[in-house]
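Researcher: Let's try something more involved. This one mixes different molecule types, so please make sure each is placed in the same coordinate frame as the others.
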Amino acid sequence: MTTLNPPDAEPAARAHMAGLLPDRDGPVFAEPWQAEAFALAVALHQQGHFTWNEWSATLAAEIRAAAARGDADDGSTYYHHWLAALERLVTDKALLTPDGLQARKAAWADAYARTPHGKPVTLPVAPDK
Amino acid sequence: MDEHSHNHADGQAAPSDPALRVKALESLLVDKGIVDPAAIDAFIEAYEHRIGPRNGARVVARAWVDPDFKRWLMDDATAAIASLGYTGRQGEHMVAVENAAGVHNMVVCTLCSCYPWTVLGLPPVWYKSAPYRSRAVIDPRGVLAEFGVELPDATEIRVWDSTSEMRYLVIPERPAGSEEMSEEDLADLVSRDAMIGTALATLPAAKEPAP
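Model: All components are placed in one shared frame. Result:
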């Protein structure tokens, strides 16, 4: 289970500088999916699916592309860029396909809609093993 | 974890778009045997609970009290830091940069957010923001002032731009009045920001040093 770190009140200076809520020392995942995306990228790198140079270049490209689209680039959308870079690398490296990802995402959305409150959400069967 | 109910007739509220995309990625990679879900969980757990700026603070405190370790750290930071059990996962090289009278170091990653995770944990949001990434280089003195750090005009400010291969750890100056403190207590004086270079190591205001 992922623990979340609520923002706390710290010197206003840095909030002013970044135009953002400050955070205190320690891990900074605002939502569980951010921690999962972070861990997936590092795990794939450790298994040799891409180099850390490739990762940094892909992430930097996503951040630039988002800024060009008008993203605030204030740090708050950082893990969105991280996730976009991860999707790009796993498909570039042919570990997964864009269609496969799209279909699986739809399957999860479906599973949430079908599962009653309080029950764990699971996929019916792995559709495309 | 907090479960909200929103009175849906049936079914559960779908998580956010990014959360669904991560679930798609993770479940497909697990199905294909590419990643081990237990390893992912263990990794998240480690980053949330065991890896953080406390690691870096111990490195700094050791350097303050042990001149041999300090020499090693300045000479080969990757090895000296690994000797304390903190080893990199990205194969990056660590470089220690030392503050001294007349010299202040600060670290940025102008391209993305390269950061010495093994000693500092995960980067704060402001470190990843465009204003910090651009202004740290153009106007480091102005950025430091906004963090409440005022340095003498004569102090040289060195800004280090991290890369995927080089990560920097700032060794702040040991505060005056800390001569009698133990290594463990010294580590408490070293904040994350002090090791990024946007703060100084200081004695706690409320707690006077031993008379």
